[in-house]
Design goal:
The chain is α+β, with helices and mostly antiparallel strands and 296 residues long. The protein has two domains: 66-145, no CATH class; 151-292, no CATH class. It is built from eight helices and eight strands; from the N terminus they run αααααβαββββαβαββ. The protein has helices at residues 15-20, 24-53, 88-104, 110-126, 151-154, 164-173, 220-231, 247-261; strands at residues 155-158, 177-182, 185-192, 200-205, 212-215, 240-245, 269-279, 282-292. It is elongated. Residues 118-143 are annotated as: Disordered. The chain crosses the membrane at residues 28-51.
């Protein structure tokens, strides 16, 4: 009896089954795309955080701020507003405060200070009973103004920095010029650009000086000024060191003070203390504190 052998045929897989299979290449490609998306998202988030945390500095147009402070100009000191110099009887009342003011206070005009000293000396030497009462207005350019504390008396600047190099950078950034006066010398010796290898030196007459200036009675900053002047080749022995502020820097200080003051009237301010802090462009002034005048 004949038998028929079974016919074993291998079963073929459909073509679409190979297409549905995920290859190793596809897995690696998908992983790389996912990593790139995550990295891009992270960079985008960090960039947004960077933009929102930056203190972007913009150029602000600063208006010129003028204070109509009273001053007697080249008039003699006195107890009224009189063009005539005071007599000896009135001079006794004003001579001692005037000497104290010239040696301790800081004025905004060297010429006004010199003229006042000349007037007081002339009155003392040539007058034995003058009829005038002098001018009771404080030192400064001649004029009348509201009752405010003048800038040279109201402002105090505290320089930040523990070394002489930083202090020199701050002076140069704001265009502050150092100088020495007195000591029997009729001219003022100036020095500037202290961060340069060779600082700039010049000599000028006090009659041509009308900038705001400050001086130190004592302390480390006075010694720092003397050291910088010495390095610049300026002889400061027996002379008074001073800091001369350009008009732009003076106006900048007035603007910073005004912004901090807000709606408060200027005549209510007795003292404004400025500080200096570093910025991306160098340094800037800011108000550390203000003190009010006592009510009368």
């Amino acid at each position: 009896m004949a038998s028929i052998a079974p016919h074993n045929k291998s079963k073929q897989r459909p073509v679409h089954a190979n297409l549905a299979k995920v290859s190793a290449y596809d897995q690696v490609s998908g992983l790389l795309v996912a990593v790139l998306i995550l990295v891009g998202t992270g960079v985008g988030v960090l960039f947004v955080i960077f933009l929102t945390t930056q203190n972007w500095e913009t150029n602000v147009s600063i208006p010129v701020i003028i204070e109509p402070t009273p001053g007697r100009g080249d008039h003699a000191a006195g107890i009224a507003q009189d063009l005539e110099a005071p007599g000896l009887e009135e001079l006794e009342e004003v001579l001692e405060p005037q000497i104290e003011a010239n040696y301790q206070a800081v004025t905004d005009a060297v010429t006004s200070q010199q003229a006042t000293l000349e007037n007081v000396d002339g009155a003392a030497q040539t007058t034995d009973g003058g009829t005038g009462q002098g001018d009771s207005r404080p030192l400064g350019p001649e004029g009348n103004g509201i009752d405010i504390v003048p800038r040279w008396e109201r402002w105090q600047i505290e320089f930040a920095g523990s070394d002489l190099a930083t202090y020199a950078k701050q002076l140069d950034h704001f265009g502050i010029e150092l100088g020495t006066a007195g000591g029997g010398v009729q001219t003022i010796d100036y020095a500037a650009n202290f961060t340069a290898t060779t600082p700039k030196r010049r000599t000028g007459s006090g009659k041509a000086e009308d900038r705001l200036y400050f001086t130190w009675k004592s302390g480390s900053l006075r010694e720092a000024d003397l050291e910088l002047l010495k390095r610049a080749g300026v002889n400061a022995k027996g002379r008074i060191p001073m800091q001369f502020y350009p008009a732009d820097t003076e106006n900048l200080l007035a603007f910073v003070e005004q912004q901090f003051m807000g709606d408060r009237p200027l005549h209510s301010i007795r003292k404004t203390v400025f500080g200096i802090r570093p910025t991306s462009n160098g340094y800037e002034f800011y108000v550390m504190r203000q003190m009010q005048r006592s009510t009368r």
